[in-house]
Amino acid sequence: MPTLHVLTVNAHMGFDLLNRRFVLPELRDAIRSVGADIVFLQEVMGANARHAKRHPNWPQGTQYQFLADQIWPHHAYGCNAIYPDGHHGNALLSTFPILRYDNRDVSVHGHEGRGLLHAVLALPDGRELHAVCVHLGLREAHRQRQLALLGELVRDEIPEDAPLIVAGDFNDWRLRGHPHLRRFGLGEAFETHCGRLARSFPARYPTLRLDRIYLRNVRVEHAEALSSRPWCHLSDHAPLSARVHA
After folding, report:
1. What is the DSSP letter of 233?
2. Contact, 229 vs 204, CB < 8 A?
3. pLDDT at 110
4. pTM for the complete prediction?
5. Backbone φ, ψ for residue 144 (5° rounding)
6. Residue by residue, what is the 3-state secondary structure of 34-51?
7. Is CATH 3.60.10.10 correct for 3-245?
């Protein structure tokens, strides 16, 4: 069974937690230092013409391509929100080939765009690993609808015996969505390894358990929240890291 290193990061559009400083190059260095095989990204920009004019070190391509450069040869992007200057969404970076992917729009009309990016990766042993990058809404009623759609995706489109990792920003600060995911056979990496969900928000003094790494047919070996420097200055969320056996 191969050992995989998984990282989930809310990229915060490439800006620091106060939205004052463009820190994407520093974030890329920090993500590279972890040595993850699979990186789940939320709030990553596909394009933004206004920011590109204002910041001289803005990448020529997309933010996820800039982060992936020369380290993760395979990547997928799901656009969640489109606006006059550009768009942003979820992305997945992988050292393993991505066989196919699909982005499911779970946005509630009139509110911020949200999505579920579902990718199928080819593991070295020939098996397929399903990875779902999640970013849910800020309102409880919206999250309940979005979690129901996530449950349908897991139930209807992912084989019960397939390795599955669901990770990202769930915005579930009251923990009401957590039992719902258990009903689909998903165990949370930090709860399994540490006995409790990780505190990930706000980055400098994490108190809320917003970010998660859920697993099915995958065993967790180690889990850690990255809330010290430099991470606490690179986003408003602390990234989560886990080593797992698929």
Report:
1. G
2. no
3. 65
4. 0.96
5. -60, -40
6. HCCCEEEEEEEEEEEHHH
7. yes
